[in-house]
Amino acid sequence: MADLVVHTDLHGDDVAYRLAGSGETVLLVHGMAASSRTWRFVLPELARGFRVLAPDLPGHGESAKPRGDYSLGAFAVTLRDLLAELGIGRVTVVGHSFGGGVAMQLAYQHPELCGRLVLISSGGLGREVSWMLRLLSAPGAELVLPLVALPPLALPVLAPPYLRPLGRGRLRSWLVARGVPADRAEEVWRAYASLSDTATRQAFLRTLRSVVDPGGQAVSAQRRLHRVGLPTQLVWGEADPIIPVSHGLTAHQAMPDSRIAVMQGVGHFPQVECPAAVVKIIGQFIAATPAAAAEGDG
């Protein structure tokens, strides 16, 4: 069930999602240039105790890639409408990287839908971000990126099955030779390979430029996070090269009731690099932390 992708129409655009399990709902929101597949190790384990929903955000994965609004607010509206379409009420929302910003925006715009918040290597909590993302946000990146993400380099996506290991294996070997763990290298490969598709690449640049400029992260969710006041669990890799762990530590210090788990030797993808630990953290957080009461409850 966790591997089954379902499609639904939201206002004329196709939205793909994975749904598994039963019980209290956990909403998993992936990061930029990713898809619901980033939760492939976490989703089936969480589904043993929860109903788990993992959508492909617009412009990502198998969802439609329209010309339109790729702001945090637009993504939050899509999640709101998807929950309504599926008849799902309040959720524990888990966001990774850019998805953390989307999760905070959903909680801010629609607090009635969110009972708890889990932020994994989240954007929106500080200015610093990797130099590569800052570079790609600059004018002209749309001219250079097609030359870098050529279809021949995305061999695992486009080639026949018997040729697919070649491209992925070469890139993974190159990354691993430079000290990048294999599971992290695989996730980097998936993000890179997706950009060989023109529509995905255009959606990626629109999404990126909605939150990042050449100076760093241009959108801060810190104040919104405080105003929402949800029980919050922060999860970070100590060796994250994309969004530094200092962002998580600063956010935790500013929220006395929050929790934080810092994973030694882990990079930007804890849900891939140490999925069992992430599942345990989420499960324990939900078990120990009552969901915030919705306005009007009680």
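Next protein, fold it too.
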Amino acid sequence: MAAGNSRHSIAGAISDLLAGTPTHPSAVLLEGEPGIGKTTLLRAAAAEAGALGFTVLSTTGSVAESMPSYAALADLLAPVDEDLLSLLPAPQRNALSQVRRPERGAGPTDQRAVAAAFLSTIRALADRTPVLIVIDDLQWLDPSSTAVLSFAVRRISGPVRVLAAVRSDEVTSARWLTLAWPDAVRTICVPAQTLGAMHAMIQRRHGHSLPRPALTRIHRISGGNPFYALELSRTVDWIADPDATLPPTLAEMVRTRLEGLGADTEAALLIVACATTPTLNWFSAPLRRKSGM
């Protein structure tokens, strides 16, 4: 069951997750609506864990990557040294090599070997340092990675921590996050931001405060959602037009903004949306070819 908490107490719960010298694994699952601040909490936790000497393995689910096999698992394995992987039995080592660097025509990967190899890797890492596995947008993990993670987290032991975030309307997709120890997984519902916290966030982001009536309207319309509030705060010039009409929903605001884009901008956005991991070089290449450069 998800516990209701203030943002301060959530930060405390995450710090507790990372504190001390744990003898068995535990996990915290953050649930909340899109834009409520789950990613910010996960990034802060990853930085805190790194400063405490944890090995941090992280991945973010993506709609664009919800089908390719082992996309999330490859992200988690990216920081792992080759020296450690070289100690795995040959079948496991070969399976992980195919996950990290897929080769065309190599045939299907043995999921049992991948799962055993990932578990062995986590155990080997935990023998060296505490381990934190961070999973954002858990609801969009690819099925192959989910199957491997489900196998591993039920069998891990020692100083291993899991911190994950999932959308409230997709929380059933996190049912696989079950550890061997009773009550080892704590689910926390990320609450709406208070008016005071929203004021501080907007001031920090824009470098100035908004009139209190405008801030109150933003808080009411956004429902305390930080992402929605930031978007609303830059929608109009609040000093010049404190009574400006605001879109009633985030979807309506995004729709209005997109309708104002030109054809060239829409084409550029389409190109970026088609790429799994767009980079500046990747994006500029077709433009150079189009312009004959």
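About the second fold: The two ends are 58 Å apart (CA to CA).
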